[in-house]
């Protein structure tokens, strides 16, 4: 999640929570990551020897939501900015196995939809009206979120029908290519889509230590992103917030400077350039198990063995109430 420049004078705590509005992962989502990390460790040797070709094109539906108070929209340039945004996604996801195909753009003017805040009635109204496609379709909304928040996203999960409708990415129109510096290169959508594909922030807290919450513990559950105490802003060259024994003792991470160029940090658009190999593996595994394998109610017997047998066992989940059925946006 990312924050508008106007709020960069806010206190650090406010800033860190407002820049990306993606909510803290639930216990269940944490458990999924523990499951994936262990699975990926077991499979690492085999994968290195013979990696399947992963080549997925994600159907992408863009929805522009405009009210009488929406800032950052120029009707003349908007259509080309949206196409540039899809190009930016595709350029930056090159080498990840994911590409994005723009299926349709919808434009909605509604003066009541002034702020698409996470958890708000407006969010539900917007998404339940506009959402298209199944759980493998990316719905990318552009509209004002409020509180200086540049974007937020949902993680893949075993969703309820309501959560199915809420699935997707929301970005402020000022984060589009040609928007408001220093977040004007379309990287907010790259970051938020990373969450949608199941990535955590590189500085994801792994412990209760307020001074260095990201330095030890599970962090982002990805080995090859060096631990980072908290979010980075601007583009602070050779920043290194986790050092010494704390870092050396962290078996869930690798020593090294903070991953300020990683898309899942908070630095300026021009500073964010890369996903790590471990993140790419996590996105691909999550896609296979949590989005493609997602079977709506009434279709659940399609795959022998059912949905996510390992993960279900790991989490002790029953299927009851966990399977979404098509909603109005199906
Ligand atoms: C919108 O963009 C066009 C093309 O760049 C420009 O000529 C126009 O002045 C802009 N409109 C506003 C209100 O900024
Ligand atoms: C695109 O979405 C709009 C709004 O939902 C709809 O009216 C239009 O028919 C769609 N176009 C295509 C090509 O699907
Ligand atoms: C926007 O529209 C709403 C609803 O029609 C109205 O109450 C409000 O005064 C309008 N605000 C502005 C700034 O035009
Ligand atoms: C790191 O590990 C060593 C050896 O197990 C231990 O003695 C030391 O206290 C640990 N340091 C920290 C900061 O956890
Ligand atoms: Zn984020």
UniProtKB/TrEMBL annotation:
**The keyword Zinc belongs to this UniProt entry's keyword annotation:** yes
Keywords of the record, alphabetical order, are:
Disulfide bond, Hydrolase, Metal-binding, Metalloprotease, Protease, Signal, Zinc
Q: In what residue span(s) does the Peptidase M43 pregnancy-associated plasma-A domain sit?
A: 180-285
Query: Which GO BP terms, alphabetically?
Result: proteolysis
Query: CDD domains in the record, alphabetically?
Result: ZnMc_pappalysin_like
Q: Hydrolase: present as a keyword of the record?
A: yes
Q: SUPFAM superfamilies, per this entry? A: Metalloproteases ('zincins'), catalytic domain
Signal peptide annotation: 1-18
Could you state a single Gene Ontology molecular function term? metallopeptidase activity
User: In which family does this protein belong, per the annotation?
Assistant: Belongs to the peptidase M43B family.
This protein's name:
Peptidase M43 pregnancy-associated plasma-A domain-containing protein
């Amino acid at each position: 999640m990312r924050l508008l420049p106007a709020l960069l004078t806010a206190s650090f705590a406010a800033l860190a929570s407002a820049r990306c509005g993606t909510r803290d992962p639930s216990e269940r989502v944490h458990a999924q990551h523990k499951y994936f990390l262990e699975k990926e460790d077991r499979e690492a040797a085999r994968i290195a020897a013979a990696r399947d070709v992963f080549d997925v094109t994600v159907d992408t539906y863009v929805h522009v939501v405009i009210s009488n108070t929406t800032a950052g929209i120029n009707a003349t340039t908007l259509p080309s900015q949206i196409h540039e945004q899809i190009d930016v996604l595709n350029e930056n996801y090159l080498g990840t196995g994911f590409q994005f195909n723009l299926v349709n753009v919808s434009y909605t003017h509604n003066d009541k939809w002034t702020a698409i805040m996470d958890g708000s009635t407006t969010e539900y109204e917007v998404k339940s009206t506009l959402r298209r496609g199944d759980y493998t379709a990316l719905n990318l909304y552009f509209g004002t979120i409020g509180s200086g928040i540049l974007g937020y996203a949902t993680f893949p999960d075993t969703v309820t029908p309501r959560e199915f409708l809420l699935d997707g990415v929301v970005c402020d129109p000022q984060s589009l290519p040609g928007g408001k510096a220093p977040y004007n290169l379309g990287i907010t959508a790259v970051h938020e889509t990373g969450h949608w594909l199941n990535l955590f922030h590189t500085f994801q807290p792994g412990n209760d230590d307020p001074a260095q919450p990201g330095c030890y513990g599970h962090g982002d559950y990805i080995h090859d992103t060096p631990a980072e105490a908290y979010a980075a802003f601007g583009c602070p060259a050779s920043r290194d917030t986790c050092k010494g024994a704390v870092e050396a003792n962290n078996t869930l991470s690798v020593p090294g400077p903070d991953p300020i160029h990683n898309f899942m940090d908070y630095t300026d658009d021009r500073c964010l350039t890369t996903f790590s190999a471990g993140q790419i593996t996590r996105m691909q595994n999550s896609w296979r198990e949590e989005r493609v394998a997602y079977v709506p109610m009434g279709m659940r017997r399609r795959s022998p063995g059912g949905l996510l047998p390992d993960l279900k066992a790991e989490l002790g989940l029953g299927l009851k109430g966990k399977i979404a059925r098509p909603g109005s946006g199906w």
